[in-house]
């Protein structure tokens, strides 16, 4: 069981989502308690195997991403699979396409790795998939098309 305490409901939801993805099996038998004090920039984490408190430093990134990074960096030894870094709650190809609108492919991959802590292999995979998507989308006229999104869960936490 994972419990997140914070006075910001969006932070609670997003951090809970991140933790369930990062620890799909570790806390099924025991509990993980995370307390986030936004006014003091402190995160406190307690469980049967973890008891730590650390600060997070707000930067140019969003509050949620800043907190995710702090948790990720401090709990890296316990994270079961960190290939996707702190990416949660979004379609990674959509994010990569947006990055490509403002940057070249190499810069976009570097942003994924530095800002979202995505591993090299997954950044390359996104580059490959988005390249294939764009080659199809470029042939379609927007006025003659429809968008249909089909959710196919692939995440271990689901």
Specify the structural class: alpha+beta
Q: How many strands?
A: 4
Relative strand content: 5-15%
Low-confidence stretches are none
H/E topology pattern? EHEEEHHHH
Please bin the fraction of helical residues.
40-55%
Largest sheet: 4 strands, mixed
Q: Give the C-alpha Rg.
A: 18 Å
* Dominant shape: elongated
Total number of helices? 5
Numbering strands along the chain, what is their spatial order in the largest sheet? 1-2-3-4
The overall average pLDDT, rounded, is 88
Ends: how far apart?
15 Å
List the helices and strands and how they pair.
Blueprint: E1 2-5, H1 9-22, E2 32-37, E3 42-47, E4 51-55, H2 63-74, H3 92-102, H4 105-115, H5 120-137
Parallel strand pairs: 1-2
Antiparallel strand pairs: 2-3, 3-4
């Amino acid at each position: 069981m994972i419990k997140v305490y914070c006075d910001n409901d969006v932070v609670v939801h997003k951090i809970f989502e991140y933790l369930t993805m990062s620890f799909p099996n570790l806390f099924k038998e025991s509990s993980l308690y995370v307390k986030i004090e936004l006014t003091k920039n402190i995160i406190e984490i307690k469980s049967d195997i973890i008891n730590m408190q650390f600060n997070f430093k707000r930067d140019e990134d969003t509050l949620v991403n800043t907190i995710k990074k702090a948790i990720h960096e401090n709990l890296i030894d316990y994270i079961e699979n960190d290939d996707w870094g702190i990416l949660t709650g979004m379609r990674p190809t959509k994010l990569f396409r947006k990055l490509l609108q403002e940057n070249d492919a190499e810069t976009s991959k570097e942003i994924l790795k530095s800002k979202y802590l995505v591993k090299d292999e997954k950044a390359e995979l996104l580059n490959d998939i988005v390249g294939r998507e764009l080659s199809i989308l470029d042939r379609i006229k927007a006025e003659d098309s429809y968008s249909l999104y089909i959710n196919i869960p692939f995440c271990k936490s689901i």
